[in-house]
Each structure stands twice: as C-alpha cells, then as structure tokens.
Amino acid sequence: MAVALSLEGSFGFGLQSVKGTFVSPAVWLPLIANGDYPVDTVEWKKNYVVLDMADGKEYQSNYYSAGEWAEGSLRCPLIPGSISGLFSWIQDRDGDNQGTWASALIDCVNEIKKLTDVKVRKATFDFVKGEPVTCALEVCGLSMESGTVATPTMPVAAPYIFREVSVQIASGGQALAQDVNCERIRLELDNVVEDPADGLRLTESGHPEELYNLAGVRCSGSLSRDFVDNAIYQDFANGQEASILLTLERDATTATISLPRVLYAGSDLGLPGSHSKRIIETVDIVALGSADGVTAPVVLA
Questions:
Q1: DSSP 3-state of 236
Q2: By C-alpha distance, which of 234, 80, 244, 242 is closest to 157?
Q3: Could you say which of 197, 259, 272, 293 is the most buried, measured as most Cβ atoms within 10 Å of its Cβ?
Q4: Distance CA 11, CA 76 (A)
C-alpha cells in the first residue's frame, strides 16, 4: 500500500483543438495551498437520485443518475515561462464566443483523475504583498474517469512573487503611472459558463452535451493600497474611470493583465483605531469593455 503524500501529487492540462478528444498535458503546474483550504476540490459528480415510491417496499431500493460531470477548483502559482497556456485556457474564445476546451490529469497518487472537455468557469488572481502570485481556477468538465500514471514535467522556476509585479494605475483621467503603494489586488474573471445542473441535454452515456459560455468574460475585484494620497478615492468620489496594468516580470520573461476601463464601485476607507496600524484603503472595482464592444474588460497576455 502506497502512502499518499500531498507532495507527490501533480496537475497538468492540454488545450484541445476539438471537443471530445483527450489531449495529454502540455503544461504542468504545481498546486499551492491557501491557508487551510485544499488545492484540489475537483469531484466526479454522479448526481444520484434515490427514489421514494409507493411500491410496497419498506426501503429505498431504486435510483438513477441525473447526469455525470466533473467540477471543482484548483489553485496554482503563476510561474515564469508557464503562463501562456494557462492564459489561453482562461481567455480564448472561438468565433461563436465559446471558451477553450482542455484535458487534464490530476495525480492523487493512488488515483488519477482524467478529465476531458473541461472549461474554466471562473479564475481568481491574487496579488498579495510578500506572497506568491496565485490563480484559483473554478472548472467544469463533461467527462471524468480514472487515468493512468503520468510523467509530469514540472517548471523549474520559482513562482512570481509580489515584488516582481509592476502595478500601473491611471488616476485623475491621466495616463498609466507606476504605483508602488498597492498591497493587495484580487481580480475575479467569470466566463459565464452555464451550470450543467440547469437541465442541459445529456448524451447516452449520461454526460452533458455542452457547457455553453452564455456571455463574454465579466471581471471584478478589489484593490488595497497604502493611503499615501487620495488620488484613487477622488476618482471613486467623482465617478472617474481609471485603468490598471499589472506586469509580471523576471529577467526577460513577462506576462501582463490589463484592465483598460475600471470603475471604482465602492470604498471602505476608514480609521483602523489602533496605533499599530496604518490607514489602508480598499476599493471595489468593476472592469468594463470598450464602448464599441471590440476590447474585452480584461486582457491576459
């Protein structure tokens, strides 16, 4: 019997060119914990319904499946040289505005989860002072089964950490400018994927036929900043739109997250009431697409 140690687990995915065909992982990423929360909650949802019927029997004895699919979340760090595939899976759409399918393997030592036709429903990026930059993926897949042993090729580089992130903010209607006072940024991307429990058609094998993206990506989040000036608060108070550009950079390797139009939707600015704490402002943000509908509210590159 093998002892199932967490450090022996692995996660990899490959982008599919067509639906229905498993693709071996081309990208492997380590998973990283967030406090006491597990890094992998992807479950094989059997959705059994046990029947209660007037059939002369004292006990429940019949059941059926309302459909099978996989869903859950995975949390990984952003690593130099290993981001483009992840960004494509999250962001790319086809001519019908449908998201990218991927296959995935999640090696849990004594069991390997093999998933086909998986979409990213939501992606949450966390930038926190003094910590690695992370991305939590909420995924849903049409098919899940037991897989075979994989041979992961994990990235050698360490994850990006907060100090390797350049934060640029356009305040007061001016151009983007460096802001070194941000301490925490969270961006939540919602790909608006239909819930498979909402009565989607099932195949003969009991899997949903589709996982439709019902709209373009939605993006919201929050930004916390040392209150060294009131530039952002004034934009909030005046209803002034802003823009934000995050650049992750190490040596010659870069990745960017751009929000061309940002609306500050709320501010919790207040006094902490302690001599041991500074005043930190946190604003809620909503990212908007361009008025002509050409530019998305968030661009991953």
A1: helix
A2: 80
A3: 259
A4: 9
Cα separations in angstroms, 10 against 13, 53, 75, 146: 10, 44, 12, 15
- Nearest alpha-carbon partner for 84 in 270, 243, 253: 253
DSSP single-letter state for residue 6: G
Rounded Cα distance between 277 and 123, Å, is 31
Give the model confidence (pLDDT) of 190-199 as tens digits.
999 999 887 6
Residues in contact with 59: Cβ distance below 8 Å, sequence separation at least 6, in sequence order: none
Q: Is 41 helix (H, G, I), strand (E, B) or coil?
A: coil
| Cα–Cα distance for residue pair 71/41, rounded to 1 Å | 8
What is the per-residue pLDDT across 38-96, written as a single tens digit (0 to 9) for each?
Answer: 788 999 999 888 999 888 888 998 888 888 999 999 999 999 999 999 999 999 999 99
What is the phi/psi pair of residue 222, to 5°?
-155, 160
Q: Is the full-model pTM beyond 0.90?
A: yes
